Amino acid sequence: MQLSNEEQLRKRAYAIWERQGCPDGKDAEIWDLAVKEMNGQAPPPLPEAPFPTPQKARSTK
Hints:
The chain is mostly helical. The protein has helices spanning 5-19, 27-38.
């Protein structure tokens, strides 16, 4: 089964969203990046360090 262009674009955007650490509020930016990748344009370089992750809450006693 071959996926439609729109379905491929959705899957690519979801993969980018996951790759970036599932950020909130960046839907349009991620969608635009997926469109650029689908059109063969190079995506912007990723930062050197891994994406930040939430730190565990420290108990202070």
